[in-house]
Design brief:
Elements: H1 2-10, H2 28-58, H3 71-74, H4 80-90, H5 97-117, H6 128-158, H7 164-192, H8 198-214, H9 230-246, H10 253-267, H11 269-273
GO molecular function: pre-mRNA intronic binding; U1 snRNA binding; U2 snRNA binding; U5 snRNA binding; U6 snRNA binding
GO cellular component, one term: catalytic step 2 spliceosome
GO biological process, one term: spliceosomal tri-snRNP complex assembly
Amino acid sequence: MTKDLKHLIYYRFHTGPVGKGPGNGFWAPGWRVWLFFMRCIDPLLEQWLGNLLARQFEGRNSKGVAKSITKQRVEPYYDLRAAFMHDILGMMPESIKQNKSKTILQHLSEAWRCWKANIPRKVPGMPTAIENIILRYIKSKADWWCSAAHYNRERIRRGATVDKAAVKKNLGRLARLYLRAEQERQHGYLKDGPYISAEQAVAIYNATVHWLESRKFAPIPFPPLTYKHDTKLLVLALEKLKEAYSVKGRLNQSQREELALIEQAYDNPQECLS
């Protein structure tokens, strides 16, 4: 922009006997760019030169700086897994430690996936002691997982600076926790419910009926059982099913039986609909 402005103004000075050369033209836009550049770069140059001289004379101070754990490594540093493996290997004989530790870790990962998906898990034949340790590990990890999810949601609610990926991850965690709570509520209702008595149900029903009558509610009529296009729709559906068998050269027993039923319905559509 500055160069365009300069050329726009300079072309008036480059005509006539004066011509090009120093001392003519419009110098203010270029001077303004350099002025602002120097004003911005001066503090940076002072800081960089100061750091360079301090490091030159005093040396590097690497031991005084604590190493920061990156965000990617925060959760893996949670060493429940190591404590679990220590407990498992401590109760196993030396001869079977190596070939069984990987299998137990696979059971551990599968148990954690089942907990997150709220799927009941029972491995037949697993020793009770190992099963109890796995359950204890899952409970400890679940407590930590839930507290981290609620802590991050509180930070997001307060308006703290949170990474976009962390926000999406937190939303997924809270959705999982909500679905777990809803499934537990429904299982509890099926097990112990319904939580209203027969008298309360009758009162609710009567109140609903009286309210509908007071609003002059007209019930929506149910669709007729005999629809005039039923036969056409049935024939189209059967033709679509027959197309899947027409491309196959050989059919097994179940496929032949199904094709016979389709052809029977195709020949007698009214009987099939009734």
